[in-house]
UniProtKB/TrEMBL annotation, chain A:
Keywords: FAD, Flavoprotein, Oxidoreductase. Its cofactor is FAD. This is Tricarballylate dehydrogenase. NCBIfam families: CobZ_N-term, PRK08274.1. The keyword Cell inner membrane does not apply. Residues 12-439 form the FAD-dependent oxidoreductase 2 FAD-binding domain. The keyword Oxidoreductase applies. PANTHER family: FAD-DEPENDENT OXIDOREDUCTASE 2 FAD BINDING DOMAIN-CONTAINING PROTEIN, FUMARATE REDUCTASE. GO terms for molecular function: oxidoreductase activity.
Length: 468, 383
């Protein structure tokens, strides 16, 4: 029932990419009556880019629902966005997206996506974020089923590698497939092909050689070829090339596609040191869901882009388990030896930290105020001495989820031209334009909001343009 | 335990090694899944997993029997093959589950019967049918065997009632004993206290989940048979089979009561309760198994334990033949073919009874126990 793209005919709308944004665009365009072709670079199993690894989306809602524990107003959502981006957003676009996110919970359910109450170990997101039953791949499978059922044609292992333009008007895409290069003509283009996080050379343009030490949390297919082509064809760029959603993940994770199971939620329970055994940031600054997204950059700034979360036996059961077991030592010195750190230096750092911990009542469920005195940097919550053997550590590296540099869009998701004005028939949605909303920082589930809301807008816009 | 295994003959050694390999792989997968938890809304396996951080063989056996093999977690898994993490929970839990039937079998020396179960069950059924055919031919007057019989006691002119009760009573009691002993071994090994089996809430919770096949719904969409478009036909056919079987069992019980309490002999008229129950049940265990067989042929082999397909098919076919011959007996009971049909039907019923503890039938028993335990665990976890 899933039909492949016919390269010998033109389509009303060509959607480049195969994730949440692409599928929302394809479905919306198809529902408006347009013929639609999805051109996805990955093979069928790996289709969907980072959507495969997601688990929830953040949508505003005025009251509790069967799966959300309470209201999350537009104002609160916007405040959260301002805080995580430190104001680096486009207010009009962000407010529009948040307003439209309210409808999204209904719309996306109508496309076959199912929700469930927040997953075990993620209670703090139970009010704000809607969790997909079965996770991101389940969500994606539902969208693909719906798209295919509507008659959207889908090509896998097909990458848009060039665009044929007539001034500001898109004419056709050059699609590279296992069978060679093909020309695919279309009346409108939706660029929803993700960021360039899997393109290490491009990352190096922003980060320098240290990008070699980054791990990529998603598929190796997000290489940003279409983004580069669009910029090359005169579309307006937005965002900083070093800005991205980056977290600290287990350093033993594979280079690509380790996904959720390599993340570590234990920073708040211990100390984090670099390979000189120095602490470098307040591990207890805020609850973990509000801080996990800063640690990728923090670790990227350390020597050799590696750090070690060190904690003791009392904390072992307090956080979600992860793929790799922690490194274990009966003493701090033994642990240091196994990590390849200087035992004397690690012992000194732990002793210094322990001595600075003030008395308090530890409570991992709240900001408990257990803090250090006279230590730089301080630890402001959940500080308790690391003293009960055995001692544990996880090595961590920056794990890049997605990049923010993208093309600028307006409220119709229409791509803007570097020379002023907007492209006649090119729309963008998802990570390829995330930088319009996320100048920096991250809030859990917001990538999916950007994808769904702008995907739907782009699909509706492209669909009605093509039918004109 | 280790030294016992070392004393085993070569063939059994490799079975033990295979069993350990399955457990090791299941343990690896549960570590992956417990770090992810995206599937926790799909069924009982993942919430039960989340109540643990380490997975011993008893835990894994319990989780494996909790799994209904709907396949939803596999089509939803971002780490499924060909991903390098190679997570295939339905397949690996099917392997551990199938190993568990042999692991707890009573008496223990019957364990090898599970190795080539399709063949074993087929042979037992064939021998059982042959025994009735030969027995009837040798012991029954041909005029009676091949003559049209009618009226109460028609069956018993071919096989006296007391002989029938002796044969089937003995087989049934043996099987009940063997199944019960396996259950005790299973329950002890998964580490649940006996008191749970006296907890009305746990029993009610388990019974509800069994009766509704709650977890054969793929988290709401149905089974992911070909990992493409889920459907709920497996659940429907399983319901037909399960309730068909229950109705047949009820027909037998009612017939026994009619015989001993009311003094009324079979065959009963078509409108009488044992016949109505048996007919409906017979239709259930005919249509249900046919649907299950068709679903099995269509199903992605990657979702199951392909090495035990023989066991699955033998069990389904045995139920099907029991149903078909039972219905045939109803149609042909007043004709000269009744004697032969009765031999076929009794042969398959006896074969079914004899192989209950030594085949796929055990899946229902262990899964039922696992669901009772899950109901108890949930209660403990939430309180």
């Amino acid at each position: 029932m899933e039909r492949t793209v016919d390269f010998s005919r033109p389509y009303d709308v060509i959607v480049a990419g195969g994730g949440n944004a692409a599928l929302c665009a394809a479905i919306a365009a198809r529902r408006s009556g347009a013929s639609v072709a999805i051109v996805e670079k990955a093979p069928r199993f790996y289709r969907g880019g980072n959507t495969r690894h997601t688990r929830n989306m953040r949508c505003a809602h005025d009251s509790a629902t069967a799966t959300l524990s309470g209201p999350y107003t537009e104002e609160e959502f916007y405040d959260d966005l301002l805080r995580v981006t430190q104001g680096n957003t486009t207010p009009a676009l962000a407010k529009m997206m948040i307003r439209k996110s309210k409808d999204m919970l209904t719309w996306i359910t109508e496309q076959g996506v199912r929700f469930q109450p927040s997953l075990g170990g993620t209670l703090s997101l139970g009010r704000t974020n809607s969790f997909f039953l079965g996770g991101g791949r389940s969500m994606l499978n539902a969208l693909y089923r719906t798209a295919a059922g509507l008659g959207v044609h889908i090509a896998y292992e097909a990458e848009v590698t060039d665009l044929e333009m007539d001034g500001p008007r898109f004419v056709a895409a050059e699609v590279t497939t296992p069978a060679g290069r093909q020309r695919l003509a279309g009346r409108a283009l939706v660029a929803a092909s993700g960021g360039f996080e899997a393109n290490i050379d491009w990352l190096k343009e922003g980060w320098g050689e240290i990008a070699e030490n980054f791990l990529i949390r998603g598929t190796p297919y997000n290489r940003g070829s279409l983004l580069r082509t669009l910029i090359g064809k005169g579309m307006k760029q937005i965002g900083d090339p070093t800005q991205c959603h980056a977290v600290a993940i287990d350093a033993r994770a594979p280079k690509y596609d380790g996904g959720i199971i390599t993340r570590l939620d234990c920073v708040v329970f211990g100390i984090v040191v670099n390979n000189r055994c120095e602490r470098f940031y307040d591990e207890g600054e805020d609850i973990w869901p509000k801080r996990y997204a800063i640690w990728g950059r923090l670790v990227a700034a350390q020597p050799d882009q590696i750090a070690y979360i060190v904690f003791d036996a009392r904390s072992l059961q307090l956080f979600m388990p992860s793929l790799f077991p922690p490194v274990t030592g009966a003493t701090i010195e033994e642990l240091a030896g196994k990590l390849g750190l200087d035992p004397v230096a690690l012992r000194a750092t732990v002793d210094g930290f322990n001595a600075a911990v003030q008395p308090g009542t530890f409570d991992d469920k709240i900001l408990d105020g257990c803090h250090t005195e006279g230590l730089s940097p301080p630890k402001t919550n959940w500080a308790r001495p690391i003293e009960e053997a055995p001692f544990y550590a996880y090595p961590v590296r920056p794990g890049i989820t997605f990049t923010y540099l993208g093309v600028e869009v307006d409220e119709d998701a229409r791509v803007q031209l570097a020379g002023g004005g907007r492209a006649e028939n090119i729309w963008a949605a998802g990570e390829i334009m995330a930088g319009n909303v996320l100048g920096r920082g991250y809030a859990a589930g917001i990538g999916m909001t950007i994808g769904s809301v702008f995907g739907r807008i782009a699909g509706e816009g492209a669909g009605s343009h093509a039918k004109r | 335990m280790q030294s016992d295994e070392l004393k085993m003959p070569a063939a059994a050694m490799s079975a033990a090694e295979a069993r350990q390999a399955h457990l090791d792989e299941a343990g690896r997968l549960m570590t992956v899944c417990n770090s992810c938890r995206y599937c926790e809304g799909l069924c009982a396996v993942f919430p039960a997993m989340e109540m643990r951080r380490a997975f011993g063989s008893g835990d894994l056996t319990y989780l494996a029997n909790l799994c209904h093999n709907c396949g939803a977690c596999n089509s939803d898994c971002q780490f499924a093959p060909p991903h390098e993490f190679a997570v295939n929970v339905p397949k690996v839990l099917a392997e551990v589950r199938n190993d568990s039937y042999a692991r707890y079998v009573w008496p223990g020396f019957m364990a090898p019967l599970f190795a080539r179960n399709g063949l074993v069950v087929t042979l037992i059924a064939a021998l059982s049918v042959a025994a009735f055919l030969v027995g009837f031919a040798a012991l029954t007057d041909p005029a009676v065997l091949f003559g049209a019989q009618s009226g109460p006691g028609a069956f018993y002119r071919i096989l006296p009632h007391n002989a029938m009760v002796a044969i089937f009573g003995a087989a049934f009691l043996w099987s009940v004993l063997a199944v019960a002993m396996s259950c005790i071994r299973f329950w002890r090994d998964i580490g649940e206290p006996g008191s749970t089996l006296r907890d009305p809430q746990a029993l009610a919770g388990g019974a509800h989940d069994i009766a509704t096949l709650r977890y054969l719904d793929g988290g709401g969409m149905g089974c992911a048979n070909d990992a493409e478009v889920p459907d709920d036909t497996r659940r429907m056919y399983h319901h037909l089979t399960f309730y068909g079987f229950a109705l047949c069992f009820a027909a037998t019980v009612v017939g026994t009561l009619w015989h001993y309490l009311l003094g009324r002999d079979a065959p009963y008229p078509w409108w009488d309760l044992p016949v109505v129950l048996g007919t409906l049940g017979g239709i259930g265990i005919t249509v249900g198994p046919l649907g299950l067989l068709a679903a099995k042929l269509r199903r992605d082999p990657q979702l199951g334990d392909a090495s035990r397909k023989g066991m699955d098919v033998a069990f389904i076919v045995m139920l099907l033949l029991t149903g078909v011959t039972g219905l045939a007996l109803l149609v042909l009971r007043a004709t000269p073919l009744m004697g032969v049909t009765l031999a076929l039907h009794l042969g398959f019923v006896l074969g079914f009874f004899l192989t209950m503890p030594y085949g796929k039938f055990m899946h229902g028993i262990f899964r039922g126990l696992a669901l009772v335990r899950y109901a108890a665990e949930r209660k403990r976890h939430l309180s």
